[in-house]
Design goal:
It comes from Thamnocephalis sphaerospora. By secondary structure, the protein is of the alpha+beta class. Among the domains are: 102 residues, no CATH class; 85 residues, no CATH class. The chain has 19 helices and four strands. A hairpin with a 2-residue loop joins strand 3 and strand 4. Helix 6 runs antiparallel to helix 7, helix 8 packs antiparallel against helix 9 and helix 15 runs antiparallel to helix 16. The longest helix has 22 residues. The protein is elongated.
Length: 418
């Protein structure tokens, strides 16, 4: 019994030590793509007879195309990797809709299951890739990508990023000149530029390479947008990363001063991302709209922020689960109206908020908005300042919300109110 337990413990320890990583799976998938299609069919059996391949040489082109298909439809974001200490599970979702699940154990990967999509097999692909020039350009792009993969494995992140950029540019040229491989090449180009962004970010001095990261993200977005509706959600996700990068470049001094140009650019990028999500029918559009509103308000662009809040809340009010978070956004929108001195609009906003969410009435946030509105209209300057200070002392407020309250006080002519 003791021997068995020791053996079991040793097995568990060795399994944990040899549990394959995501990077190991990427390398495995890359190697697998050299001789298998996304559905697992060897190119040699892809509907072209041996005699035809020998006689015409078409097999070389078809084989190259299937090799491109296998590698182009497995970008990093389409891989779902889960580690369970002693083993790992990786699921790959291809552009065609095919899906494969792999088990990683003892440093190796085994195929557990796969889903093939009717109409995406070899029979529908034979005859494409017949342009020799296009084939050569794709081969060159693939070589550049493999170089980048190797450099990333060696942790030479800056060199890898440059190689990914070169591969992305090469795939983009194919997308511009080839009709048959245009969408596939554009998707692959986007994946290369996205990997370039990741490598720049992982570089030892990545914090000083924000411009390079932003440029790679912009190229990736443009490439995925060339893939039609299938690339809109992917592009929107990258735009959100670009917005985060833009926010990080705003200094604390600029943020405190308000009306930061960088903050406005970030909010506008979120706005574009939300629009793409909405076009793609992706439910993340409303949450991206909220990020747009919060970003605009955080950096002092209150008018932009309040309009984005209104658009998001018009959607959230119809979602039962999301109604729980409505109060904080109703309050934030009210602060934005106060910060720009739009007291009349604030009164209308309070009425709309109570109509939208009756439970908002009587809440501390609603009472504050109503009290400050009354003070501003009646001219009770001391009460205005005392109420503002008391609420700020008792309630946790974000830095931008404190600045909004201070800006609201500045819009009231205290001397006139006295």
């Amino acid at each position: 019994m003791l021997t068995f337990l020791l053996l079991l413990a040793a097995l568990a320890y060795f399994s944990q030590r040899t549990n394959p990583t995501l990077e190991h799976f990427r390398a495995h998938l890359t190697a697998l793509g050299r001789d298998r299609l996304p559905d697992g069919t060897p190119p040699a059996q892809a509907g072209v007879s041996a005699s035809t391949r020998t006689a015409s040489g078409a097999a070389t082109k078809v084989g190259r195309f299937f090799q491109r298909l296998a590698t182009a439809t497995t970008p990093a974001p389409d891989i779902v990797y889960e580690s369970y200490q002693v083993c790992s599970i990786a699921t790959v979702r291809y552009v065609t809709g095919a899906e494969a699940t792999y088990l990683g154990w003892f440093g190796s990967w085994w195929l557990l299951s796969e889903v093939r999509v009717k109409g995406s097999g070899a029979a529908t692909l034979v005859g494409r890739g017949s342009n020799d020039r296009s084939d050569d350009e794709l081969d060159k792009a693939e070589e550049l990508k493999q170089t980048a993969v190797t450099l990333k494995g060696e942790r030479a992140y800056v060199r890898a990023a440059r190689a990914y950029e070169a591969a992305g540019k090469a795939f983009s040229q194919v997308a511009s000149t080839s009709k048959s491989d245009a969408q596939l090449a554009a998707h692959e180009a986007g994946g290369c530029y996205e990997e370039a962004y990741r490598c720049f970010r992982q570089a030892p001095d990545g914090s000083r390479m924000a411009d390079h990261q932003a440029q790679s993200l912009e190229h990736a977005v443009n490439c995925f947008l060339r893939c039609g509706t299938s690339g809109e959600s992917r592009a929107a996700g990258l735009l959100c990363k670009l917005a985060e990068l833009e926010c990080a470049q705003v200094s604390s001094e600029e943020e405190r001063a308000g009306a930061s140009p960088g903050g406005l650019r970030a909010a506008q990028i979120y706005q574009r991302a939300a629009h793409l999500y909405e076009q793609a029918g992706d439910g993340r559009h409303v949450y991206t709209k909220l990020r747009e509103a919060e970003t605009a308000a955080r950096f002092g662009h209150y008018t932009h922020g309040v309009h984005a809040y209104d658009q998001a809340m018009d959607v959230l009010r119809h979602r039962e689960m999301d109604r729980l978070v409505l109060p904080q956004y109703l309050f934030a929108a009210g602060l934005c109206w106060m910060a720009v001195g739009a007291w009349g609009r604030l009164d209308g906003h309070i009425a709309k908020a109570i109509d939208m969410l009756p439970t908002f009435e009587g809440s501390p946030q609603c009472v504050l908005l109503q009290t400050l509105y009354e003070c501003a209209v009646v001219g009770e300057a001391d009460r205005f300042n005392a109420t503002r200070a008391t609420f700020a002392a008792r309630t946790h407020l974000e830095p931008w919300q404190l600045r909004a309250l201070n800006a609201a006080a500045a819009t009231v002519d205290i001397e006139e109110l006295r």
